[in-house]
Amino acid sequence: MDPKRPEALREKLVNRLAARGIASPRVLWAMRQVPRELFVPAACAYEAYEDKPLAIGFGQTISQPSMVALMTELAEPQPADRVLEIGTGSGYQAALLALLSKEVVTIERFPALAIRAAKRLSDLGIWNVLYLVGDGTLGWPHAAPYQRIIVTAAAPKIPKPLLEQLADGGILVIPVGCRTEQVLIRAEKKNDGLRYEHVIHCRFVPLVGQFGWPEE
């Protein structure tokens, strides 16, 4: 990739996202700040600003920018929020959340991906992220409750521990369905009740764990 081009490509991407309905100024601002080309394999850097998912190893992907922007907008992260992310992957979503919230706890089941993500974010000067390796379907009760939870892999149903760790007034965004097709769900917790919104059909890698899919 031409070193003079990423900023222009990033601006074009943000403009496309705005034209497609991403309306949050904070989300669009964050996507302008994070260099997506650093979060994809070097061989795919020229595709970093195309609106498509890219493989990052271990059978995992970095979601297409439009999906990342949509999930972030649905979650509405606020400056004082503690956010739980399930599925660190490349670290791109965590980087955006870190710019938009006070603290991010992110859980990844593949140690190598977690290590790479931590290195990328530290190189960018992002320090308000706690990286954990383990079963993301269990969440991380030690830092609960979370004002926002984003799950970047598909579950057969919303894991019970995540609902328990969601703060009152909190928002959880997660793809739910079968292994091959899901619906993106936004759940808002109020007075111990949940209000669900089915947003869009989507396709994510499976969420593997005790409250997700079994390992194939």
Question: What would you say this structure looks like, in words?
Answer:
This protein is of the alpha/beta class and 216 residues long. 29% of the residues lie in helices and 28% in strands. It has helices at residues 6-19, 25-33, 65-75, 92-100, 111-123, 160-165; strands at 54-57, 60-62, 82-86, 103-108, 129-133, 146-151, 166-177, 182-190, 193-202.
What's this model, at a glance?
The chain has 216 residues and is α/β, with parallel strands linked by helices. The protein is built from six helices and nine strands; from the N terminus they run ααββαβαβαββαβββ.
Supply the number of helical segments.
6
The H-and-E topology, N to C, reads as HHEEHEHEHEEHEEE
Helix content: 25-40%
Ends apart, CA distance between termini: 36 Å
Mean pLDDT across the residues is 95
* Cα gyration radius (Å): 16 Å
What is the β-strand count?
Answer: 9
Fraction of residues in β-strands: 25-35%
As laid out across the biggest beta sheet, the strand order is 5-4-3-6-7-8-9
Let me know the largest β-sheet. 7 strands, mixed
Cα shape: globular
Relevant terms:
alpha/beta; 7-stranded mixed β-sheet; two-stranded antiparallel sheet; 6 helices; 29% helix
SSE topology sketch:
Elements lengths: L5 H14 L5 H9 L20 E4 L2 E3 L2 H11 L6 E5 L5 H9 L2 E6 L2 H13 L5 E5 L12 E6 L8 H6 E12 L4 E9 L2 E10 L14
Parallel strand pairs: 3-4, 3-6, 4-5, 6-7
Antiparallel strand pairs: 1-2, 7-8, 8-9
Helix pairs in contact: 2-4
